[in-house]
Design a protein that fits this description.
The chain is an alpha+beta fold. The chain is 29% helix and 26% strand. The chain has 14 helices and 19 strands.
Length: 457
RNA sequence: UCCCCAGUAGCUCAGUUGGCAGAGCAGAUGGCUGUUAACCAUCGAGUCCGCGGUUCGAGUCCGUGCUGGGGAGCCA
């Protein structure tokens, strides 16, 4: 199959041996997304069969190759008998190549069809479990390795690609250095109850990273502006539409930056991502039936409110939430539904936030932190803020958490050698993609989702 | 961890008051020269999730376990 990929990527000018008449014409293997460039030419297309129909002496194949779909048409008499007679054998997802003239055809899905003269079968598929009719989510998740072949799943994962590409380009263009954070770590950075633990040779335990942030802080002290993009792991027993046990984050960290600066950075990054998705993924958003107008509204400035103001807002909405408590999913939905653009909520109570958050020097009961809630009820997509840069205060905060202090010697050390104000945030890729695509659940936004009760396939 | 719902053909589901196990799709066979989730005809397909109980009789009622889905809390 590796050979096939090469053939599809490189257009091969095939010269038939002399003396074979019509077969001397050039033969090109093309991808379906490039059919417009080959109208009227004799070409070869490799792909998988998604569907077939027949009506007596005319037979239709719908092929997909990962770049699109095309109808291949077989006429008794015009198509070679050997190719025509292969039709009954073809099952859904069988792999094959077809060769023939490419032409415009309004009756064909996609507007083009290939009039097949020759056909080659790579493999006849067994009865394919995923039929064109509806399936339950449990069944589809069990067949995730095959479900990826559906147009809807491909559309979502292409949007994911664009989200990551846009975010990385945004930071690259602003002079950030990509600094990969470790996956295996000696300790927690959020809390010990949600760590995946594994053996690390004799007598040592390692933990799967919950966040690259602490390492990004070290990186910011070296490079000034850094970011990481990678998987993170939380052993939370969450069973909701917005949780995975393995999820990806993009985490920038900036030296000599304060809360306001990273709030502006987060806003600019989100706008860049939304613009990139709107620019490059119109076809995918259409397949997903996304209301594009809702995304076109996403522009500066985003709404900015304090935690105090959010509490007042929730009380006005009839919710009884005391000051000092973190918002639940329901509260977030109420707030984010209120706005047509993302809203940044800053200065949460210190008690609800992680140890590394810096307290507001003017009000020690609140932290210099920020969450960004996406509109349409999508809720929190970003969490971040200014980090505690005082060694002694940080040490006290770590002791208060009950986390093993010796694991954080290196982290505290960052504050002993030229400590500076610094800040950063983390963007949850899957929640961002779910918002862009208008999905109910994040499980479709990652190729192989890991959930509390699902580790397969 | 807690609350709610579901489990019947490969898939999606129906199954009445407890009384012979059903449909559509998928699969197989045949027909049709422009199909669009094509259509028409025919055929095959079942540990009714497991265990226990009530009953002359259980897919249906009761108990229990397992699996899946939805929600809460926690978080990105």
């Amino acid at each position: 199959m590796g050979f096939l990929i090469v053939v599809r990527r490189i257009e091969i000018d095939y010269k038939a041996p002399a003396g074979e008449g019509d077969e001397k014409m050039a033969l090109k293997t093309i991808s379906i997304d490039s059919v417009r460039d080959y109208e009227g030419e004799r070409v070869t297309i490799c792909g998988w069969l998604t569907h077939k129909r027949s009506s007596g002496r005319i037979r239709f194949l719908i092929l997909r190759d990962g770049t699109g779909i095309i109808q291949a048409t077989l006429f008794k008499g015009e198509t070679s008998d050997s190719a025509f007679d292969l039709y009954p054998e073809l099952t859904q997802e069988s792999s094959l190549s077809v060769t023939g003239e490419l032409r415009k055809e309004d009756r064909a899905p996609g507007g083009y069809e290939i009039l097949v003269s020759e056909m080659e079968i790579f493999h006849i598929a067994e009865t394919y479990p995923i039929s064109p009719k509806e399936h339950g989510i449990g069944f589809l998740m069990d067949h995730r390795h095959l479900w990826l072949r559906s147009s809807r799943q491909q559309a979502i994962l292409r949007v994911r690609h664009s989200v990551i590409k846009a975010a990385r380009r945004f930071f690259d263009d602003q002079g950030f250095t990509l600094l990969d954070a470790p996956i295996l770590t000696p300790s927690s950075c959020e809390g010990t109850t949600t760590l995946f633990e594994t053996d690390y040779f004799e007598d040592t335990k390692a933990f799967l990273s919950q966040s690259g942030q602490l390492y990004m802080e070290a990186g910011a002290m070296a490079f000034g502006k850094v970011y990481c993009c990678g998987p993170t792991f939380r052993a939370e027993k969450s069973k909701t539409r917005r949780h995975l046990t393995e999820f990806w984050m993009i985490e920038p960290e900036v030296a000599f930056a304060d809360l306001k600066m990273v709030m502006d950075l987060a806003e600019a990054m989100i706008i860049t991502i939304v613009q990139e998705v709107l620019k490059t993924r119109q076809a995918e958003l259409h397949i997903l039936e996304r209301d594009i107008a809702r995304l076109e509204q996403i522009r500066a400035p985003f709404y900015v409110i304090s935690y105090d103001e959010a509490i007042e807002f929730l009380k006005d909405a009839g919710e009884s939430i005391p000051w000092g408590e973190d918002f639940g999913g329901g509260h977030e939905t109420i707030i984010s539904n209120r706005f047509d653009r993302p809203v940044l909520i800053h200065r949460y109570p210190t008690e609800t936030k992680a140890f590394y958050m810096k307290n507001d020097p003017d009000r020690s009961e609140v932290a210099l932190c920020v969450d960004m809630l996406a509109p349409e009820g999508y809720g929190e997509i970003i969490g971040g803020g200014q980090r505690e840069d005082d060694s002694e205060i940080l040490k006290t905060k770590i002791e208060k958490t009950g986390l093993p202090p010796e694991s954080f010697d290196w982290y505290l050390g960052l504050r002993r050698y030229g400590s500076v104000p610094h800040a950063g945030f983390g963007l949850g890729i899957e929640r961002m993609v779910a918002w862009m695509c208008g999905l109910e659940h994040v499980r479709e936004t990652i190729p192989f989702p890991r959930l509390i009760d699902r580790l397969y396939p």
